[in-house]
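We read letters as residues; the integers encode the fold. Take this protein.
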Amino acid sequence: MNFRFFSFIALISSALSALPCTSLIATKGATADSSVMITYAADSHTLYGDMPALAAADHKPGAMRKIYDWDSGRYLGEIPQPTHTYSRIGHINENGVAMAESTWGGRHELLDTCGIIDYGSLIYITLERARTAREAIDIMTSLVAEYGYASEGESFSIADPNEAWIMEMIGKGPGRKGAVWVARKVPDGYICGHANNPRIHKFPLNEPETTLYSPDVITFAREKGYFNGKDEDFSFSLAYGVYDYMSLRGCDARAWSFFNRYAPTEAAKWLPWVMEGKGEPMPLWFKPEKKVDLKGMQWMMRDHFEGTPMDMTTDIGSGAYSVPYRWRPMEFEVDSVKYFHERAIATQQTGFSFVAQCSDSAPSGMKATLWFGADDANTTVYSPVYCTMTDVPYCFQEGNGDLYTISRNAAFWAHNLVANQAYNRYSQMIPDIRAVQNELEDNARQNHDLLLVQLKDKNADEQRKILTETSHQLANNATARFFELNDFLTIKFLDGNIKRQNPDGSFKRTETGLPAQPEYGGYNERYFRSIVNENGERLKVRDIEL
């Protein structure tokens, strides 16, 4: 059966294709170490990559929590505090609960302009209150039912050391408090993902152990004219999402790339869906053909569709240096025909990204580890931050620089300076970046594995002390190394040249101590051919007679 597209105004489809964020999910049975993992890329052109943290606290009766919109900083209101809130650091809490999201907007008329709980605040408030992923869903849905949902369509990844859920939610419009939503437990042994397009289509109506939903999720869709079929044929995604070509190619394609990496045989069947919108919607989850490990999940966040028909390093848009990036806007027009740039998981405007690793076999202080990286996932270094820490590494701290203030101690700026050099001469610079990146990340993972053993017999306070010291040292060292790498790249690739190096990595000098003559990096063959095709006659070297 062919999927039928719905046509909406151009403004909505253009907005949808530009939406940010990607989240991937791997369950215990799908991972090499039996941990549950979720990822997040917070992609925004105005987001600074830092990490908020909040200590656990007891609250007196009448205590209130102020709420500020995560995207704009606008004050929305306040809600009562419970008697106790748990500590959170980044997107994990002391209980090992982790959360991520991606925005899909959906039907704009369903935005609750009177609600006071936006999607970002919903994540943070829930982390302050939840002991498990299942409890997090109850908390989230209760909060928006009571105080209103101040955001548009959203997908959430919610995990704890035992299970992972995907939940999708959208408001009911002005004057209609609450939200319609559905949550599905990802089957153990499977992987899942979402990227700015609602992914839950049909779902079982009588399986409360695996599927939860708002009582009016179908009746509200009928009321609004979004659906008129049988209940068992109801698709949350088709009813509340807004579909066009770019919602598949720019969004579902990112989830497909994850499936293609780990379940290539099955994923190949769904390439027509993401490339052309043909056939049934892509399944919500896939069973991987090989186990997902931490390193693989980190590198999945660096994906640019390499090795697929959408590979961003091989078409003419990658230029002379195989650059896997395309500057915004994503859509453009030539001779009245509309075209687009591919939208991969890794993108230049990422503020921060992470891989959250939740494990029930780890020491209590490590039951959730946030492998956190600032700026573009492709050129960041993922450093571990542990769930019982309340002291953020200085390089990640709020107030350490901003988008208009370069801080020489901030991870965001260290990685931005390196990345923005690489965007100009990617194929030449990326080997040097990879060498430092791999060294730092391999060391961090090895340290993590040692701590899993060493902390088994330590009490909570001892664990917290060791984990905090280790986390700070690794993150701050990675930041310092990338500032050094930025200086190295500046020297090595100055003025379009490539400085010669000795076997130990130092720059070569002549016998008299002067800089050695550099190599000329030049351009690739495709670049030269494109020049010849366009300006060959003007630039051709000719024989002359004097």
Notes: The first strand starts at residue 23 and ends at 26. Residues 460-492 form the longest helix (33 residues). The radius of gyration is 25 Å. The CA atoms of residues 275 and 410 lie 39 Å apart.
